[in-house]
């Protein structure tokens, strides 16, 4: 970037001289910018992701919304539930759910509400037992249904945290 020095007398000059100085300065800046662009090769900009909502200091991206939409659609199909005819309505509901979840998890962090690994492991074992499966069989069943075990584990952790917050608010 070029620095342009303006003589001290310009500030006290008549308005016409000041206007000419500003025009000259603007022309120099534009010429420098145009010259810089001519030397740079043109690049194509590709949209990778975009923000669809801001929840306090956190964002929800289009990718997050799309992933949650896909999970919701997969779950509806698995249950045999009819899929709403307008995908915009479902997308709005999923976004509202993501926003609510973010707010609740932010509150959980502020209040130091956590789920330790032992509690999470016990809960997963109880879910497997309730389905008459060993932990290994349960894990395989999840994977066969297209649900990565680590994602299931983190989703379950979020659910437990949110349940604890709700229980605390009720008491």
Spans where pLDDT lies below 50 across 5 or more residues? 1-19
Structural class: mainly alpha
Helix content: 55-70%
Order of helices and strands: HEEHHHHH
- As a percent range, the share of strand residues is 5-15%
- Biggest sheet details: 2 strands, antiparallel
Strand order of the largest sheet: 1-2
Please give the alpha-carbon distance between the first and last residues: 62 Å
In brief, what are we looking at here?
Helices cover 66% and strands 5% of the residues.
Task: Describe the fold and architecture.
The chain has 6 helices and 2 strands; from the N terminus they run H-E-E-H-H-H-H-H. With 171 residues, it is mainly alpha-helical. A two-stranded antiparallel sheet has the order 1-2.
Question: Secondary structure elements and their pairing?
Answer:
Layout lengths: L14 H25 L11 E5 L2 E4 H18 L7 H24 L6 H14 L4 H10 L4 H22 L1
Antiparallel strand pairs: 1-2
Helix pairs in contact: 2-3, 3-6
Keywords:
single chain; 171 residues; two-stranded antiparallel ribbon; disordered N terminus; mainly alpha; 6 helices; 66% helix
């Amino acid at each position: 970037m070029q620095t342009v020095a303006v003589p001290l007398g310009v500030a006290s000059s008549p308005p016409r001289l000041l206007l000419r100085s500003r025009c000259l300065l603007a022309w120099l800046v534009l010429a420098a910018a145009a010259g810089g662009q001519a030397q740079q090769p043109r690049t194509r900009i590709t949209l990778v992701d975009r923000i669809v909502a801001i929840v306090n200091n956190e964002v929800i991206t289009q990718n997050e919304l799309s992933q949650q939409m896909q999970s919701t659609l997969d779950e509806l199909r698995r249950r045999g539930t009819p899929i709403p005819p307008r995908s915009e309505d479902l997308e709005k509901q999923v976004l509202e759910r993501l926003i609510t979840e973010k707010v609740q998890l932010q509150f959980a962090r502020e209040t130091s509400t956590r789920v330790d690994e032992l509690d999470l492991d016990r809960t997963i074992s109880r879910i497997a037992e309730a389905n008459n499966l060993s932990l290994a069989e349960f894990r395989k069943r999840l994977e066969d249904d297209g649900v990565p075990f680590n994602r299931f584990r983190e989703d379950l952790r979020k659910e437990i945290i949110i349940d604890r917050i709700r229980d605390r608010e009720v008491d």
